[in-house]
Amino acid sequence: MNIPSSTLVEVQNIQMDFHYHTALKDVSLAVKRGEIVTLIGPNGAGKSTLVKVILGLLTPQKGQVFRQAGIKIGYMPQRLSVDMALPLTVERFLRLSGITQLATIQAVLAEVGASAVLQRPLQHVSGGELQRVLLARALLRYPDLLVLDEPIQGVDVGGQYELYDLISRIRTQRGCGVLMVSHDLHIVMAATDHVVCLNQHICCSGHPGIVSRHPAYLSLFGARPARDLAFYTHHHHCAEHTVNEENIPITEESVLPANEQSIHPLHSAVVITKD
Ligand SMILES: Nc1ncnc2c1ncn2[C@@H]1O[C@H](COP(=O)(O)OP(=O)(O)OP(=O)(O)O)[C@@H](O)[C@H]1O
């Protein structure tokens, strides 16, 4: 099957079984150029499994995987598969990707805001710096599609906003598509175009403002994250993020009880801009 030229990858009706356990059942999704798609779901929902199917690292028992011919994919895995006991500088670690030009490595580290760690041993960089180095590695081949499996692990809350802001800017500047896995709902949902809520099957999917109010989402995650998102988007985002399913604007007053409106923790949050 041919996929539209704007689509980078598409999977249809995927089933992935491990022994007697079905990790994915009848899962379909697509990522287009310039779009950020975020997979959310509880532990064991099949998020990493779906990412591996999309990357071609796992072959599903059923369904089809389409990749646009000739596209390059940059992958940031959930775990770093490097022996942290090895004496390895960030520069040498990035050279392991096959890119040997120092100027290219310096440019990509500057792009992710991690120039300062170039000569530092990998095991001495902080959690937030390590995530930026891993993002730099995924960017080194100038991918059409960036696949990020829980990119904000080990990053403090302020750093999480910065990292999502960075990912959003990379998408805009490079025009690549982004497929992300995340647990942190209220932050990531404000920085994404399309959310897919997974729990073996797709429970719901669509625009973040709609998914956050979907009964399947609420039964998985509870009401609080939805209220956080509505509050957050009300303050920091364009109109398209502040309407509900009936296209009625969502206001701070409509989602938070009066006694929570002035003390909400996201009130002073760092702004993520959505282009
Ligand atoms: N190689 C494997 N062999 C057997 N079972 C596996 C394998 N990989 C994943 N699983 C199982 O498939 C299910 C989905 O795992 P997966 O890692 O995709 O979930 P996840 O949504 O990414 O979870 P988390 O949020 O905890 O990272 C889990 O029950 C897991 O134990």
UniProtKB/TrEMBL annotation:
InterPro entries attached to this UniProt entry: AAA+_ATPase, ABC_transporter-like_ATP-bd, ABC_transporter-like_CS, Metal_Ion_Import_ABC, P-loop_NTPase
GO biological process, one term: zinc ion transport
Keywords per UniProt: ATP-binding, Cell membrane, Ion transport, Membrane, Nucleotide-binding, Translocase, Transport, Zinc, Zinc transport
GO MF assignments: ATP binding; ATP hydrolysis activity
Coiled-coil parts of chain: none
Domain ABC transporter residues, every copy: 9-224
UniProt key word Translocase: yes
Name listed for the protein in its UniProt record: Zinc ABC transporter ATP-binding protein ZnuC
Organism, scientific name: Beggiatoa leptomitoformis
